[in-house]
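Hi both,

Apologies for the delay on this - the queue was longer than expected. I finally got the NAI-bound model through. Below you'll find the protein sequence and the ligand SMILES exactly as submitted, and right after that the structure tokens for the full complex including the ligand.
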Amino acid sequence: MTNVPTIIADENMPALELFSGLGEVRTVPGRPLPRAALTGAQVLLVRSVTRVDEALLAGTSVRFVGSATIGTDHVDLDYLARAGIRFAHAPGCNAMAVAEYVLQAVLAWALDNGRALQRLRVGLVGLGNVGRSVAGLLEAVGCTVVASDPPQVEAGAQTAVPLGTLEQVLACDVISLHVPLTTAGPHPTHHLLDAARLAALTPAQLLINTCRGPVIDNRALLARLEAGQGPVTVLDVWEQEPQVPPALLAAVWRGSPHIAGYSVEGKVRGTWMLYRALGQWLGVDASRAMPQQAPVRTWEAPVASMADLLALLRTAYRPEEDHRLLREAMGLPPEGGSRETWVPLTDVTRGTNFDQLRKTYRVRHETAGLRVTGAVAPVWQTVLSRLGVVVSQ
Ligand SMILES: NC(=O)C1=CN([C@@H]2O[C@H](COP(=O)(O)OP(=O)(O)OC[C@H]3O[C@@H](n4cnc5c(N)ncnc54)[C@H](O)[C@@H]3O)[C@@H](O)[C@H]2O)C=CC1
Ligand SMILES: O=C(O)C(=O)[C@H](O)COP(=O)(O)O
């Protein structure tokens, strides 16, 4: 390509200054992305909220699409291949952010319910970048982890985490979902947790979904939760985003607006990976380092107990704050209010509120780089090391 390309980018993408040497960047809203904005553009950079398909791209001059996300279910990859449009995404970019979100949920649930981590069996559905990061942290705090991942079994993959069946995973104390959303192929994940599988789960279990909403049949889940028979549930993702059914939100232990991966580092890494991929595609230098943004942080107290570890993690991120804000945005009162106090919002308002929460999401850093100066009990040393914490006593 000889001319300077025009790059259309989602306005919620950080660190776009990386692209200043590669083309002229124009930002646009991602949901909905105005098709007219693509006029004359060669490059489109999106996040997960933009459906990228023939309806968006046919007749445009876009030749490169990048998604600063791990998931690709919003992109019609077959169409891009047929149309000869290059695609890049950001595998693993925010895996640690999601793993920290899951670790906090497990620690808080275990503390609340008097469960010893060393006796907890954790089942992961999907053992890719996120599943492996989650496994690394949970094994380090003493949990026994098993995963179900049929594509890896069929590929004969050697994994550090033992692979089992989905049924074995769903029988664990904690179940955490980390699969892509797929509707075709030998192992589709749409409604993988359907009514029958959900019916086998009990209130003694913790179910966490940070992958994609439609992996769980949300109506069936709500029916189980309203009957008081479902598992304690954490949902970061919802079947009809940006819609969040108030009844389902009211029934889960914790809900959040699809932000499990929203660390500053995870988002910036996603942009940086696209910058590298675009530079390679254009055949130009793209050797700028990933912008480093985490400030110096210090934890001066000891890390002796599970509660201490949770308190340390909470310096970076307080999940119940996301839960509170999401309830408010969907018209629910603070925890405990009756159904009569719910504010009846329209779908349009709820959708706008959901996207607004994500757009204005606060600065949240991953734990890596945190300096601990208090005494650390041997039992927590491995997890702190895997979190990238620097212990200096
Ligand atoms: N809530 C959030 O903010 C985020 C959500 N995600 C979601 O998490 C998903 C997983 O992310 P990664 O682990 O990085 O992806 P990955 O592609 O590295 O791993 C996915 C794993 O799932 C396995 N898998 C596929 N179908 C399966 C099935 N039917 N049963 C069990 N395993 C199956 C694959 O073999 C692979 O090992 C992404 O596709 C994305 O949708 C990712 C990052 C942030
Ligand atoms: O990486 C993924 O996959 C995700 O789910 C993203 O973290 C979601 O963030 P947005 O792309 O919707 O901003």
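Main takeaway for now: The pocket of NAI (ligand 1) is lined by residues 70-71, 91-92, 94-95, 98, 125-131, 148-152, 178-181, 187, 189, 192, 210-212, 236-237, 258, 260-261 (CB under 6 Å).

I'll put the files on the shared drive as well.

H.
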